[in-house]
Design brief:
The structure holds 2 protein chains of 2 kinds. By secondary structure, chain A is an all-alpha fold. Chain A contains 14 helices and 2 strands, in the order ααααααααααααββαα. The chains are: A mainly alpha, B mainly alpha.
Chain lengths: 331, 357
């Protein structure tokens, strides 16, 4: 049985309730919208979408709400000869979809369905001379892709692969650290909470968190909370539910998640729920989508919201799964 | 007549008659079946056929444009287009014009901005093949990218060519930033352009550009970040003169918007980078306490807390600990109570300071 959050937060009685059953139905219904062009215009994100949906369902305590066999069968078809996964059948492999596929398969304990060594070959082939990783074979580089690569290799227990130079990866990520303590997508790039998450996550997995000034970055992250309780990604930007995850998980890795006002953030996330359709939007009053749904729910789980399965702040997967595969807790 | 012809979908034109589109393979038990719009599915069918055959032709190039305009985030098609542009030896300046239009339509597409970088990288390489220092691979990141040439080593006419290219790229990006001054992709690409062409005169212009943006919006954090990028990377790094000028620059903006996080973080960041102590702005911060709007700025109090804490440690001064404590209480209880847990933690840290008896 999945471990629920051990320490739960006292939730403000006047905050809206978590519409757990409606969110389950919302996610189950996502795959029935094939008559909408919108569904197909996002087909390159299908594998990511499955990760978001299945992870949200696991945290909601409904791990069987999607047909596992069908998903595994589908993912197998998305793997290419070079080992990487495309975002959908017939799409070129990319590190983003490769990580999502591996995360889903590990969550379902079905890594046996794919060729793991080939995934490692693929990821190793994406490392650049400077230690960073490209997202695919045509070279776009971003700290997001570094995290995807390191996260995936860590989940597969293949960080010791001889082809990798992890010291260079650490050095590169450290070069992306800014004067405000945050991190950007490349050296010199503006600090952004999502880029902070991927950089802090990479350094956490690689045991190199000592390169971060946790107090300075912890304060910068805390500064992301606005008066309405929501979090933004950069100074003077609007609050958005997905930053509940990027900011909070980073603070959690730095052991400083208690620095923000949890009850206010919980209320903000709950107010962004769509009471008619289920699902969570970027902010109250907007249309929900699966991306904001999973990061809202994962944020609530990190905040200790009662009744939710505990989530791991580094891998954004159920904590019991991370424990099952024996990854040492580094956070 | 010509207009009528344009209304005909490409796949009904004679030059496509020999291509057999490949339908979406959903497998025997589709999780994601096939009822989507006819135009989309037909177009993608032809695209798959071209891709599978790796056809290098004008019609394939045309088709990549159709697919991209339909679904710009489909990265496979961009890569195919880049190969085609090379194989068919197409004029890259024309490509830049099309990208300009695409950026207006899809300013937040990762793929479009990356495509721009790839194309401009190719143009840079083709300018003076004998002087380029980079290999054929795409330089990956702003600061890490090895500059394409040593600007000072170029002849006068070469310098003019490079300056013209950089100028037109910076103008193109500035247009995109007019619509969204915080567009992350635009800024990342801008840093790449500045660094890729080496230490040319555009770095001076860039400092003025950030000032111009900050004139319009002092809260534009992207512009502050860019300013830091320029003063620490351009002109061979941060000098003492830069530090003095930038400290004054930040102070003057703080006086106008004391509750604006960006200039505060910039100010302390510049001091740290220039090996100056934060205590050097003590008088400035204390002065702000008597300014009606400023005395409620969390950043005034937060910076004073930092300053008194440093003083307390350096001078083992109990009085400074007291002053720091007052600031922490002010922050936790009055001006920044949403972060009261953080400020209370700061207060407990003060108790650990070893003060003279």
């Amino acid at each position: 049985m999945s471990a629920l959050n051990e320490e739960t937060t006292v939730v403000d009685a006047s905050a809206p309730e978590l519409l757990l059953d409606q969110h389950v139905k919302y996610i189950q219904a996502l795959d029935t919208k094939k008559n909408d062009l919108e569904y197909w215009l996002t087909e390159h994100l299908r594998v990511n979408g499955l990760y978001w949906g299945s992870t949200a369902l696991h945290i909601l305590g409904h791990p069987d709400a999607l047909d596992q066999e069908q998903i595994v069968e589908y993912l197998v078809k998305c793997q290419h000869d070079n080992g990487g996964f495309g975002g959908h059948i017939d799409h070129d492999p990319h590190i983003l979809s490769t990580l999502s596929a591996v995360q889903i398969l590990i969550t379902y304990d079905r890594l046996d369905a794919i060729q793991v060594d080939k995934v490692v070959d693929y990821i190793a082939s994406l490392q650049n001379e400077d230690g960073s990783f490209s997202g695919d074979s045509w070279g776009e580089t971003d700290t997001r892709f570094i995290f995807c690569a390191i996260n995936c290799l860590s989940l597969l227990k293949k960080l010791d692969d001889k082809r990798l130079d992890l010291q260079k990866t650490i050095d590169y990520v450290v070069r992306c650290r800014n004067f405000d303590g945050g991190f950007g997508s490349s050296p010199g790039g503006e600090s952004h909470a999502a880029q902070v998450y991927v950089c802090v996550g990479t350094l956490t997995i690689l045991g190199a968190l000592h390169h971060v000034d946790a107090d300075q970055l912890g304060w910068w992250l805390s500064e992301r909370q606005l008066k309405n309780g929501g979090l933004n990604g950069r100074p003077e930007k609007l609050e958005d539910v997905c930053y509940s995850w990027w900011v909070l998980s980073s603070l959690s890795m730095l052991n400083r998640s208690h620095w923000i006002d949890a009850p206010k953030l919980i209320r903000f996330i709950l107010e962004a729920q769509d009471t008619e359709t289920g699902g969570i939007a970027d902010r109250p009053g907007n249309m929900p989508d699966v991306f904001h749904t999973v990061f809202g729910i994962a944020g609530l789980s990190l905040l200790g919201y009662p009744g939710l399965v505990a989530v791991d702040p580094v891998y954004c997967m159920p904590r019991h799964v991370i424990q099952r595969i024996g990854l040492v807790e580094k956070h | 007549m010509a207009e009528q012809k344009d209304d005909v979908p490409f796949y009904q034109k004679p030059e496509w008659a020999d291509v057999v589109p490949i339908p979406q393979d959903d497998g025997p038990n589709p999780l994601v079946p096939i009822a989507y719009t006819q135009e989309y599915s037909t177009t993608m069918g032809y695209f798959r056929a071209m891709c599978r055959a790796q056809e290098k032709s004008e019609r394939a190039l045309d088709l990549t444009k159709i697919v991209i305009e339909l679904i710009p985030s489909h990265f496979t098609v961009w890569y195919y287009r880049q190969q085609l542009l090379k194989e068919l030896n197409k004029d890259l300046k024309t490509e830049l014009e099309w990208i300009e239009w695409m950026v207006e339509e899809h300013p937040k597409s990762y793929q479009i901005w990356h495509h721009r970088q790839v194309i401009v990288g190719r143009i840079a390489q083709s300018l003076f093949p004998s002087t380029t220092t980079t290999s054929s691979s795409t330089p990956s990141t702003a600061q890490s990218a090895e500059a394409a040439f040593v600007f000072d080593d170029l002849s006068e006419s070469q310098k003019t060519t490079v300056q013209d290219l950089v100028k037109s790229e910076l103008e193109f990006i500035a247009e995109a930033l007019k619509d969204d001054t915080k567009n992350y992709h635009a800024w990342s690409y801008r840093q790449w352009v500045l660094a890729h062409f080496g230490q040319g005169p555009w770095w001076t212009g860039e400092l003025a550009y950030t000032e111009e943006l900050l004139e319009k919006d002092m809260r534009n954090n992207s512009a502050w970040n860019q300013r830091y990028f320029v003063v620490t990377n351009g002109f061979g790094g941060l000098t003492e003169e830069d530090v003095q000028r930038e400290v004054q620059f930040a102070k003057s903006r703080i006086e106008k918007t004391p509750s604006n996080e960006s200039p505060w973080v910039y100010l302390t960041g510049i001091l740290r980078k220039g090996n100056h102590s934060v205590t050097e702005i003590k008088e400035f911060c204390e002065g702000l306490l008597s300014v009606p709007r400023a005395n409620f700025s969390p950043f005034v109090h937060a910076t004073l807390l930092d300053i008194y804490e440093v003083e307390a440690k350096e001078q083992r001064s109990a009085a400074s600990v007291e002053k720091a404590k007052e600031e922490a209480i002010m922050l936790a209880e009055k001006v920044d109570s949403i972060r009261s847990k953080y400020w209370n933690w700061r207060k407990t840290q003060l108790l650990k300071i070893d003060v003279a008896a």
